[in-house]
Write a structure and sequence with these properties.
Structural class: alpha+beta
Strand content: 15-25%
Largest sheet: 4 strands, antiparallel
Distance between the termini: 44 Å
CATH superfamily: Transferase(Phosphotransferase) domain 1
Number of strands: 8
Strand order of the largest sheet: 1-2-4-3
CATH topology: Transferase(Phosphotransferase), domain 1
CATH architecture: Orthogonal Bundle
Number of helices: 7
Number of domains: 1
CATH class: Mainly Alpha
Radius of gyration: 17 Å
């Protein structure tokens, strides 16, 4: 099922991303109420648009696209096109981005790899329709766990690729030591039930490794 329809359009001398938020009956998270145990996912298209607008318009240093215009009644948003590598980001670049996001008090909810893009300037988030401002640390731990699980499946047959991702992320994510202490506790740790067995040794090594400051 499709959450949102995204089109790239040329307008004058620039590219624009035109995003249309689909309705309730197409929303993937509604299929599993269990997800609400992990994170307060929004189902309604208007709620998802409002969350993304608030996040993208926030005044901070998080690498994110600029909003050009939006239409709440039609659930549409026009935003900046960010050029870069869509399918995969280095762990180190995402570690820096997640540090900025979590430092500003935001959690993403839907933090899988294909919601980010990388270029020479670093990693950008390109899908933030589940982002919320919150002081609950467990939502940030969920973000990290889901990202790690996503990277594991992207590198399903590449053990060294997954290990390299973890090494880079853990070195650059400023809250990694806090995450390590609680990564195997609470509901966010249940995600690792789905960890590919070949990547479990790398995950354990990362979680128990002491990184020098």
């Amino acid at each position: 099922m499709v959450l949102s329809q995204v089109l790239i359009q040329e307008e004058r001398d620039r590219k624009i991303i035109k995003k249309k938020y689909n309705g309730f009956n197409s929303y993937k998270w509604i299929l599993s109420p269990l997800f609400q145990l992990f994170y307060p996912f929004a189902a309604l298209s208007k709620s998802r648009l409002e969350r993304e607008l608030e996040f993208l318009n926030s005044n901070n240093d998080i690498k994110k696209p600029k909003v050009y215009s939006f239409d709440l009644s039609n659930k549409e948003l026009n935003r900046e096109y960010v050029d870069g590598k869509v399918d995969y980001c280095e762990g180190s670049k995402l570690g820096k981005l997640f540090s900025d996001i979590h430092k500003e008090g935001y959690s993403l909810g839907d933090s899988k790899l294909d919601n980010f893009i990388c270029n020479s300037e670093g990693a950008y988030i390109i899908d933030s329709e589940q982002a919320i401002k919150t002081n609950k640390e467990r939502y940030r731990y969920w973000d990290v766990s889901l990202l790690i699980l996503s990277a594991a499946y992207y590198n399903y047959s590449n053990k060294s690729g997954f290990k390299g991702f973890l090494d880079g992320f853990s070195k650059e994510y400023k809250y990694w030591q806090d995450y390590q202490k609680k990564a195997i506790k609470g509901v966010y740790s249940l995600l690792f039930i789905f960890m590919p067995v070949q990547h479990i040794p790398s995950l354990k090594s990362a979680l128990y490794k002491v990184n020098p400051n």
